[in-house]
Amino acid sequence: MAQTSTGSKNLAWGAGRLLEKNLEDYSANTFRPVDDVLREVVDRAERNQLPPLHVDSLDGLTLEVMIRMAGYKKMVEVGTLAGYSGIQIARAIGPDGHLHTIEVMPQFAEVAKESFRKAGVEDRVTVHVGTAAEVLQRLAKLGPFDAVFIDADKENYPVYLDWAEENIRVGGAIFADNTFGFGHVWRDADTIMDNPKLKSQVAGLRKINARLASNPNYRATILPTNQGLTMAVRLK
């Protein structure tokens, strides 16, 4: 999250860019990660006063390409918001795939449903309203899944990772957004004294990065984008 429609603006708490602005602009202008459908999602979110926290446009495109390359069809997304990344996932899994996406705020879920309808992918997406912990417990009976995308409350990423590790198949993947912690993940969370929320977020993000990096059942990396996109494939 923490992204507007065309660049990496609105990075939380003043975090800087990893990419130079000219390289970021070149990438966006060349690969064109934002189309009219996704622009409409951003506009719809603004009209409905949703926070501008969808996945970074280039990170979202990367996620779509990775899912297409792997041929994943059955996915879970933790954190729907207005449906921006959900549309990219739904496009990637194709008409024979299915995405289960989770949103805790009912009004956000309604906006997302409209986004999926307008994008023509509503038949391959189920929007579940409730806390992630509650919904994930119910979804476990539908597993195993090909992949899980985590883009919700950062302090609870370790909880969502627990579920993902239990419910993806061998060869499946875990994707997690914002894993640079808004530019602060290099810091020991205990040194962040002036912002308790950021402290808990950084602690959660550091935990999942360390866990995936050291788990012999996974091969993991972090893409050094402005936001940081962690990905891991299950080996065994």
From TrEMBL:
Gene3D superfamilies in UniProt:
Vaccinia Virus protein VP39
Keyword presence, Aminoacyl-tRNA synthetase: no
- Of which family is this protein a member? Belongs to the class I-like SAM-binding methyltransferase superfamily. Cation-dependent O-methyltransferase family.
- According to the lineage, what is the superkingdom? Eukaryota
**PROSITE patterns on file:** SAM_OMT_I
Source organism (scientific name)? Frankliniella fusca
Write one Gene Ontology MF term. Answer: O-methyltransferase activity
Q: Which UniProt keywords apply?
A: Methyltransferase, S-adenosyl-L-methionine, Transferase
Q: Could you state one GO biological process linked to this protein?
A: methylation
Protein name per the record: Catechol O-methyltransferase
* InterPro entries reported for this sequence: Cation-dep_OMT, SAM-dependent_MTases_sf, SAM_O-MeTrfase
Kindly name one Pfam family recorded for this protein.
Methyltransf_3
- Determine if Transferase is one of this entry's keywords: yes
